[in-house]
């Protein structure tokens, strides 16, 4: 599971404090140094770690932790609050258009989980809100992507609009949106193309699709297994497209997990969902407080 190493290290750092009768300033400094190293080793972004440690220190001295009855417990509580804040405080719901359809554009690097996450989200909306989702296959560079979206569509019983791989994705999106309106869909997912790396041609295509579709949500799908690169990717997509939310995938894998802690702080955009498996049910709303509890163990 994600975060195992981080949990162990944070617990180790704090248990050092628990063992002491009286905690000194130097003890606290040692603990903070260990927490800092644990976060860095878990792939949390350097600037984010610096700010995290500074905030915890400030709160600890403001609360006169060393004078209190149970310094270790107080530190745990401050670290917990700071983790929650760093990950966005509260769960952020999917954006919704006042009139149907709500358009959700899925973007991200190839293999991040865009197609799968579009299916999972459509499935969730259908099951929980009785919604009528609709999906548009706009990734024409990876022929298997269209087939994959169709298979998912059949599995969850959601219509998929496709025009093969020879039509310009901008036209696919225009026609797909018309078809979605005609079908009275209330949520439209655009499965846009990805690349192995961010490049200008891809960004231009995505910017054009954004202009055409005027999406209510630009959901960046990020693979949690990619570590530090995850934050760089998020910054790149955000600068160019102005993402509105993040879906973090593969948190069921053996990732160090620091990306989850950094993305919100680096981009200012909320993580809205987490993928925790390959099945259509394996998508959860992201709750910063629950994630913090999971990290602290
Ligand atoms: P795309 O290229 O961004 O559309 O990525 P895909 O949706 O094709 O996903 C790439 C691979 O990652 C597929 O094998 C998915 O089943 C897998 N995948 C996606 N999300 C998750 C997740 O949350 N957990 C796990 N274990 N695998 C995932």
UniProtKB/TrEMBL annotation:
<keyword id="KW-0694">RNA-binding</keyword>
<dbReference type="GO" id="GO:0003924">
    <property type="term" value="F:GTPase activity"/>
</dbReference>
<protein>
    <recommendedName>
        <fullName>Signal recognition particle protein</fullName>
        <ecNumber>3.6.5.4</ecNumber>
    </recommendedName>
</protein>
<comment type="subunit">
    <text>Part of the signal recognition particle protein translocation system, which is composed of SRP and FtsY.</text>
</comment>
<keyword id="KW-0378">Hydrolase</keyword>
<feature type="domain" description="Signal recognition particle SRP54 helical bundle">
    <location>
        <begin position="2"/>
        <end position="87"/>
    </location>
</feature>
<keyword id="KW-0963">Cytoplasm</keyword>
<dbReference type="GO" id="GO:0006614">
    <property type="term" value="P:SRP-dependent cotranslational protein targeting to membrane"/>
</dbReference>
<keyword id="KW-0733">Signal recognition particle</keyword>
<keyword id="KW-0687">Ribonucleoprotein</keyword>
<feature type="domain" description="AAA+ ATPase">
    <location>
        <begin position="100"/>
        <end position="297"/>
    </location>
</feature>
<comment type="function">
    <text>Involved in targeting and insertion of nascent membrane proteins into the cytoplasmic membrane. Binds to the hydrophobic signal sequence of the ribosome-nascent chain (RNC) as it emerges from the ribosomes. The SRP-RNC complex is then targeted to the cytoplasmic membrane where it interacts with the SRP receptor FtsY.</text>
</comment>
<feature type="binding site">
    <location>
        <begin position="249"/>
        <end position="252"/>
    </location>
    <ligand>
        <name>GTP</name>
    </ligand>
</feature>
<feature type="domain" description="SRP54-type proteins GTP-binding">
    <location>
        <begin position="101"/>
        <end position="297"/>
    </location>
</feature>
<feature type="binding site">
    <location>
        <begin position="108"/>
        <end position="115"/>
    </location>
    <ligand>
        <name>GTP</name>
    </ligand>
</feature>
<dbReference type="GO" id="GO:0005525">
    <property type="term" value="F:GTP binding"/>
</dbReference>
<dbReference type="GO" id="GO:0048500">
    <property type="term" value="C:signal recognition particle"/>
</dbReference>
<keyword id="KW-0547">Nucleotide-binding</keyword>
<comment type="similarity">
    <text>Belongs to the GTP-binding SRP family. SRP54 subfamily.</text>
</comment>
<keyword id="KW-0342">GTP-binding</keyword>
<dbReference type="GO" id="GO:0008312">
    <property type="term" value="F:7S RNA binding"/>
</dbReference>
């Amino acid at each position: 599971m994600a975060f195992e190493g981080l949990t162990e290290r944070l617990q180790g750092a704090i248990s050092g404090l628990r063992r002491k009768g009286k905690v000194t300033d130097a003890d606290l400094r040692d603990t903070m140094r260990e927490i800092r190293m644990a976060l860095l080793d878990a792939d949390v972004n350097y600037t984010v770690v610096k700010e995290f440690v500074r905030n915890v220190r400030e709160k600890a001295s403001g609360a006169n932790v060393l004078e209190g009855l149970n310094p270790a417990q107080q530190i745990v509580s401050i670290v917990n609050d700071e983790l929650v804040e760093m990950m966005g405080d509260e769960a952020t719901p999917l954006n919704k258009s006042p009139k149907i359809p709500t358009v959700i554009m899925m973007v991200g690097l190839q293999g991040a989980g865009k197609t799968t996450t579009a299916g999972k989200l459509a499935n969730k909306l259908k099951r929980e809100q009785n919604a009528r989702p609709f999906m548009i296959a706009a990734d024409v560079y990876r022929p298997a992507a269209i087939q994959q979206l169709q298979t998912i569509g059949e599995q969850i019983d959601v219509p998929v609009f496709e025009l093969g791989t020879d039509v310009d994705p901008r036209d696919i999106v225009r026609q797909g949106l018309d078809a979605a309106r005609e079908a009275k869909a209330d949520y439209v997912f655009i499965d846009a193309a990805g690349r192995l790396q961010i490049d200008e041609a891809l960004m231009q295509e995505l910017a054009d699709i954004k202009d055409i579709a005027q999406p209510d949500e630009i959901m960046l799908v990020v693979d949690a297994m990619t570590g530090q690169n995850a934050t760089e990717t998020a910054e790149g997509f955000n600068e160019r497209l102005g993402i509105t939310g993040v879906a973090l995938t593969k948190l069921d894998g053996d990732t160090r997990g620091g990306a989850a802690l950094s993305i919100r702080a680096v981009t200012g955009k909320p993580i809205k969902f987490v993928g925790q498996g390959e099945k259509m049910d394996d998508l959860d709303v992201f709750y910063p407080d629950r994630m913090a509890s999971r990290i602290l163990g």
